[in-house]
Write a structure and sequence with these properties.
Helices cover 67% and strands 0% of the residues. The protein is an all-alpha fold. It has a single domain, classed as Up-down Bundle (Glycerol uptake facilitator protein). The chain is globular. The protein starts with a helix and ends with a helix. The C terminus is likely disordered.
Length: 264
């Protein structure tokens, strides 16, 4: 544990910063788009969700391409980290610290947003952007979270490990987030991320069906990983980074680094 923290603490802090940035951006966008007091809030719920999706998708792409994302791997999601642990690409202690710092970063991002935005973040239409089941109930929310999490992780694995598609992975992730916010958010609030859900639930003190947002994303992404390794094999998972750039340090069991060493 001490060795992992001493050597890899920068990556842990990067993971915290990434989810903090994502949550801060989400809170700001939600206030601008959904608070009735906002001067620019669209009247159409569909337009509101489209713009929110573009904001969140764009933020995710920017984080993945940023120096933070290129070094830490841009998980900023415990379910993603657990999936790469299952795939043997991240050491257990690193995975544990990644998850801890993701939760801390998410909460910090929402608390910072609350300090900056004031009462607007408590407006009923915003409410700290909590993720709760929609009017169709818990079962629909559970299945919806499973579906979008499965699609996201499957896309990441099949694209990031393909020479032809690897460079498109950040854009595919961003595009999926746009579509999920637009079409799935009314069903579950569109989380896919336990740390993201806790980050909003804690300051809002809204824990409605919180277990959905822990169980569904993790189970769905692990299922996607099992499908991938059955189709492609363990050896076709090159790295735990969503966008691998050889110019940045990699703390994972990295196939790219092994390939480079073999070619020397």
């Amino acid at each position: 544990m001490r060795h992992a923290f001493t050597n890899h603490w920068p990556e842990y802090c990067m993971e915290a910063a990434e989810l903090a940035i994502f949550m801060l951006a989400a809170c700001v966008a939600a206030v601008v788009l959904f608070d009735p007091a906002s001067a620019v809030a669209p009247a159409s719920p569909l337009v509101q969700r489209l713009l929110m999706g573009l904001a969140m998708g764009g933020t995710a792409v920017a984080i993945i391409y940023s120096p933070l994302g290129k070094q830490s791997g841009a998980h900023f999601n415990p379910a993603v980290t657990l999936t790469y642990l299952r795939l043997g690409k991240i050491e257990p202690w690193d995975a544990g610290f990644y998850i801890l710092f993701q939760f801390l970063g998410g909460v910090a991002g929402v608390l910072l947003a609350a300090a900056l935005l004031g009462p607007s973040i408590e407006a009923p239409q915003v409410n700290y952007i909590v993720t709760v089941p929609g009017p169709w109930g818990v079962t629909v929310a559970l299945l919806a979270e499973f579906a979008i999490s499965f699609v996201l992780m499957s896309t990441v694995l099949f694209s990031s490990n393909s020479k032809r598609l690897a460079g498109w992975t950040p854009w595919l992730v961003g595009g999926l987030l746009v579509m999920f916010v637009l079409f799935e958010a009314p069903l579950s609030g569109m989380s896919m991320n336990p740390a993201r859900t806790v980050a909003s639930a804690w300051p809002a003190d809204v824990w409605t069906a919180w277990w959905i947002y822990f169980a569904s994303p993790a189970l769905a992404m692990l299922t996607a990983a099992e499908l991938y390794i059955r189709v492609r094999g363990f050896h076709k998972v090159h790295c735990a980074k969503l966008h691998h750039d050889a110019r940045w340090r990699c703390i994972f069991r990295c196939g790219y680094r092994a390939d480079a060493a073999t070619s020397l």
